[in-house]
UniProtKB/TrEMBL annotation:
Pfam families: Fer4_13 (PF13370). Ferredoxins are iron-sulfur proteins that transfer electrons in a wide variety of metabolic reactions. It comes from the Bacteria. It comes from Actinokineospora xionganensis. This is Ferredoxin. Its cofactor is [3Fe-4S] cluster. Keywords: 3Fe-4S, Electron transport, Iron, Iron-sulfur, Metal-binding, Transport. Residues 1-29 form the 4Fe-4S ferredoxin-type domain.
């Protein structure tokens, strides 16, 4: 699955990073990095949880 970030919506609060730090990271400029844009099927539940944790609805999954 593909992980997309709407950068106009992301406020870099790091909630998704807390849920899935192997997929999301804030860089030194507080910009969200998606470390693995192609999410592994085995990690789907955690990625979905990270997407759901975003209060700005800035994350989306595409299969
Ligand atoms: S939870 Fe949403 S707003 Fe917060 S860093 Fe992640 S994508 Fe950005």
């Amino acid at each position: 699955m593909r992980i997309d970030v709407d950068r106009d919506q992301c406020e870099a609060n790091g909630l998704c990073v807390n849920v899935a730090p192997d997929y999301f990271e804030l860089d030194d400029d507080d910009e969200l990095l998606v470390k693995q844009p192609e999410g592994a099927e085995a990690d789907r539940a955690r990625i979905v949880q990270a997407v759901a944790s975003c209060p700005k609805v800035a994350l989306a999954l595409r299969d």
